[in-house]
């Protein structure tokens, strides 16, 4: 499987921005659709955004739409999550994940569809 390492988390005030990165290694990066999930204390892991193998197509959770932008750079084996207008409720551990290609990103919004996970990076948004 592909190995994933996230970075870029931190502490930010409400209304601020952060950009997360996820570096992949080990297998052909373009074999995978990629996604970001997040998990807050006491809550289930939830889908945030996904991008297809080429980077042309993206899909967002309602909570992320309009504020977050996911992208990928296949030359660098890296995906990104640009997060703007952050809110305290965005506080969570953010995970990068890889899935075998799907005919539609909307079909791969649950954790069990993903075969590889990073270790997570903490994002804390203060009010």
Features:
seven-stranded mixed beta sheet, four-stranded antiparallel beta sheet, 127 residues
Q: Which residue ranges are poorly predicted, with pLDDT under 50 across at least 5 consecutive positions? A: none
Largest sheet: 7 strands, mixed
User: What is the C-alpha radius of gyration, as a whole number of Å?
Assistant: 13 Å
Q: Shape from CA axes?
A: globular
Portion in strands: over 45%
State the total count of DSSP E strands. 11
**Level of helix content?**
under 10%
Mean pLDDT: 96
Number of helices: 0
Instruction: Determine the structural class based on helices, strands and strand pairing.
Output: mainly beta
Order of helices and strands: EEEEEEEEEEE
Task: Please report the distance between the alpha carbons of the first and last residues.
Answer: 39 Å
Could you provide a short overview of the structure?
The chain is an all-beta fold and 127 residues long. The protein has strands at residues 3-7, 10-13, 18-25, 32-39, 46-51, 58-60, 68-73, 78-83, 92-100, 116-117, 121-126. The chain contains no helices and 11 strands.
What is the secondary structure topology, with strand pairs?
Layout: E1 3-7, E2 10-13, E3 18-25, E4 32-39, E5 46-51, E6 58-60, E7 68-73, E8 78-83, E9 92-100, E10 116-117, E11 121-126
Parallel strand pairs: 2-11
Antiparallel strand pairs: 1-3, 3-8, 4-5, 4-9, 5-6, 7-8, 9-10, 9-11
């Amino acid at each position: 499987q592909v190995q994933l390492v996230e970075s870029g988390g931190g502490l930010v005030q409400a209304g601020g921005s952060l950009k997360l990165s996820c570096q992949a290694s080990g297998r052909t990066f373009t074999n995978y659709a990629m996604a970001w999930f997040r998990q807050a204390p006491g809550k289930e892991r939830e889908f945030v955004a996904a991008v297809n193998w080429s980077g042309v197509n993206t899909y967002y959770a309602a909570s992320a739409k309009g504020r977050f932008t996911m992208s990928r750079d296949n030359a660098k084996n890296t995906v990104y999550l640009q997060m703007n207008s952050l809110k305290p409720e965005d506080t969570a551990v953010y995970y990068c994940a890889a899935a075998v290609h799907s005919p539609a990103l909307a079909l791969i919004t649950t954790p069990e569809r993903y075969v590889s996970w990073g270790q997570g990076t903490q994002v804390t948004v203060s009010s």
